Amino acid sequence: MSETPEEPTGPRRVIGTPSTAPTAVDVQVEPERPSFSADPENAKQAKNAERLVAALFVLAFIAGCGFIAAYVGLEVGSSTIPKGANDVVAVLRSNMALGSSLAVALLALGTGSMIWVRHLTPNIEIAEERHELRSEPEQRKAFKREFAEGAAISQITRRPLLRRTMLLATAPLALAPLVLLRDLGPLPETSLRHTVWRKGLRAVTLGGLRPLRPADISTPGSMITVIPEGFQDDNNALAKAGVILIKFEPGQLHVPTIYDGKTQLYGMNWTVDNIVAYSKICTHVGCPVALYEETTHHILCPCHQSTFDAANGANVIFGPAARALPQLPLTTDSDGYLVALSDFTQPVGPSFWERG
Amino acid sequence: MISRRRHPAAGYAAIAGGLVAAGVLYGTLSGGSASAAAPAQNTTQVAQGQKLFETSCSSCHGLDAQGTAEAPSLIGAGAAAVDFQMSTGRMPAKELGAENDRKPTTFTQQQIYDIAAYVNSLGGGPAIPSPEQVSTTNAKTALGEELFSTNCAQCHGFAGAGGALTYGKNAPSLNAATPTQIYEAMLTGPEAMPVFGDGTITPAEKQDIIAYVIETRNEANPGGFSLGRTGTVTEGLLGWLGGLGFLVLIAMWLTAKRRDHVKGESEQHS
To answer: Is the pLDDT of residue A27 over 50?
Structure first.
């Protein structure tokens, strides 16, 4: 651990050049020749190991060529795919060939190297002594002196006007990266509290984009995912506006009327013909929650098993979710289609800092 | 020189064997067979169906299919529900419970149609779809994928491999389901499954969904192993157990003491 005391090394050393002290004890004895024999103990075994390593390296070479061949030959572009072929499968095949050939090449290369080291290199121990990280006293003194000399030559201590204007000149450049943080995007402001649902906006099926009348969901036990009409291509809007409609038998549905201060959060008067609409975004971390069990009226979230009781205001009955799924007030428009009565009256999805 | 306590390759052979066993475990499931011709309902069929119902179904569902404390009423259940439950072997049930697993049916398709005709005569309900209704000739598979991932994938998984529900129930794999059975399941909502009637998912959209399920089922697995197609769970499990286990073995190999090293050390000390 501690450094061996050194004798003064004659003339002053130039800073930056290595110390003349020996670094390895083994080399100290006879630096010109290796202090060990590089001949293996068992020549036959070593020859076998050598052949094995060479075989692995050849395998790595072949697999590496295979990688290039797979890249060129199994191109996924439209030019090499026959008309009508499944391009998804083509991508899968290409990935498989690229991945396995690269894996074989790297594995063979690594295995060969390890066998080389373990079975062919002579088994000797080389000790490398640690030295103190702190520089030697004369180096430290010289640095101090040179720093002072440099400061004097640059005149920075003598001319405060130059020094101060130079600092002034660099200050805006130093602050510029902070300004660039604005490019991370606009502040969310109140967008987390609202969705695009508004009074009179029709609910349409996702995929078919058809508006629905209550008669279209006439069978009790029916469920369907709907989105606000006209927003099918707006992913930012859809991320919050997904809704599931569930149809109940008469008498099964018990949505409690709950007020949060003055705002109504849930209400039986928001259902149409025993059809209730809940947000599809889990209140835990925002997974789409739509594993609806018709027999138990449970809505299960596949991510963390939060379970909501659809017949009772989507209250949480199991799992990590902290709040019930928000209910979308439903009504019908003059054409008889299901529309929203208003936006959700509470934020949908997971908690956020300012939600309160 | 070479100690024979254990063959050097034994550990790697064990891992390789484990991987092969996992692959075999998640081996592919067979597809279903095509359904027979559409039923023609008439009074003799209803009468035959009633006889079959009384011997095979009435002990749970009641002599007039009115339901008992153990099983629901079948009045208004419809022919499609009967055909789905019986052709998948779920009914007659092995035991009473919220769920019944798919098993080989003991009835002929004609007997099932007879019982379906009888149940249909009691109070109507969804009819068994015709082969034209479940044909996927002109189906839009891409739209089917969108509809499937919106309405089906949350329970059945993106590739229709099935998944877990609450309190020990599960959504079955769709690998063995025939197009008719998929259609009937959407129409009638068996067990915990909600109903996807023609008002919410139109007959044409149902064909699109069936086309997607069939197409996905027939997709190749270029790696050789499908891993059950249940997604991240089996892939993660294999990654952790197989991949990490392999890395641990490599780390053990890298850090293991060399035999000649051990020998040299003992020579030095002696």
So the answer is: no
Domain A192-355, CATH homologous superfamily name and number? Rieske [2Fe-2S] iron-sulphur domain (2.102.10.10)
Q: What is the DSSP string of B48-66?
A: HHHHHHHHHTHHHH-TTS-
pLDDT tens for each residue of B233-262: 788 888 899 999 999 998 988 888 766 555
Residue B231: pLDDT over 80:
no
Residues of B in contact with A208 (CB under 8 A): 143, 147, 201-202, 205
Q: Which of B192, B199, B202 sits opposite A215 (nearest CB)?
A: B199
Taken in order B98, B101, B102, B107, is the CA torsion positive or negative? Answer: negative
CB of B199 within 8 Å of a chain A CB? The answer is yes
Answer whether residue B39 shows pLDDT above 80: no
Q: Which residues on chain A are in Cβ contact (under 8 Å) with B220?
A: 89, 92-93
| Res. A91: pLDDT tops 70 | yes
Taking alpha carbons only, the member of A47, A49, A56 closest to residue A111 is A56
| Other C-beta atoms lying within 10 Å of the C-beta of residue A115 | 16
Question: Quick check: B146 contacting A, CB < 8 Å?
Answer: yes
> Could you tell me if A223 lies within 8 Å of chain B, comparing CB atoms?
yes
Q: What pLDDT does A173 receive?
A: 93
Domain-by-domain residue ranges, chain A? 43-119, 192-355
Task: Output the six-digit token pair for A258.
Answer: 């709950």
| Helices and strands counted in chain A (H then E) | 6, 12
Confidence band for B32, pLDDT divided at 50, 70 and 90: very low
Q: Which fold has domain B37-128?
A: Cytochrome Bc1 Complex; Chain D, domain 2 (1.10.760)
Chain B 95-124, residues with CB within 8 Å of chain A CB atoms = 98
Is the whole model's pTM more than 0.90, yes or no?
Answer: no
Of A42, A205, A293, nearest to B165 by CB-CB distance is A293
DSSP letter assigned to residue B243: I
Looking at domain B129-220, its CATH architecture is: Orthogonal Bundle (1.10)
